[in-house]
Design brief:
This protein is 66% helix and 0% strand. It is mainly alpha-helical.
């Protein structure tokens, strides 16, 4: 039989491997470290972000969303902006790189959103 405590330590699909499940010992510390790693290095200099994980999560979420917007712009402009400075093969490779980054960022955005929700008090339950 699973103990009541073990049942509570649930992380949903998409939860980052670097962050312990909500309510695990020092889970907020692991969340803070992971979120800071996602953000520009300058964010570490702000005490508010280092000491208030839910505020940091909001900053991280907006940062990732800005990166997603940048990728979308890069994709929409790649062929027109690069055709005069790179061969077609290189332009195609650049587009493939943007697509790979778009997929990676979608996963990061989901993970940051899940961590932010948990920092705001949401808890997840295991599904059978």
């Amino acid at each position: 039989m699973v103990s009541q405590h073990a049942r509570r330590l649930v992380a949903p699909p998409g939860w980052p491997a670097e962050v312990r499940p909500p309510d695990a010992p020092e889970w907020e510390r692991t969340a803070t470290n992971w979120l800071l790693d996602l953000c520009p290095p300058e964010y570490r200099a702000y005490p508010t972000l280092r000491h208030h994980p839910v505020v940091l999560a909001r900053f991280a979420l907006l940062h990732v969303e800005a990166c997603q917007a940048s990728v979308r712009r890069g994709l929409s402009e790649a062929r027109a902006e690069l055709r005069d400075v790179a061969t077609l093969d290189v332009v195609d490779a650049a587009v493939e790189t943007w697509l790979a980054e778009e997929a990676r960022l979608a996963g990061v955005r989901r993970a940051v959103g899940l961590v932010e929700e948990a920092l705001r008090g949401r808890r997840y339950v295991a599904r059978l």
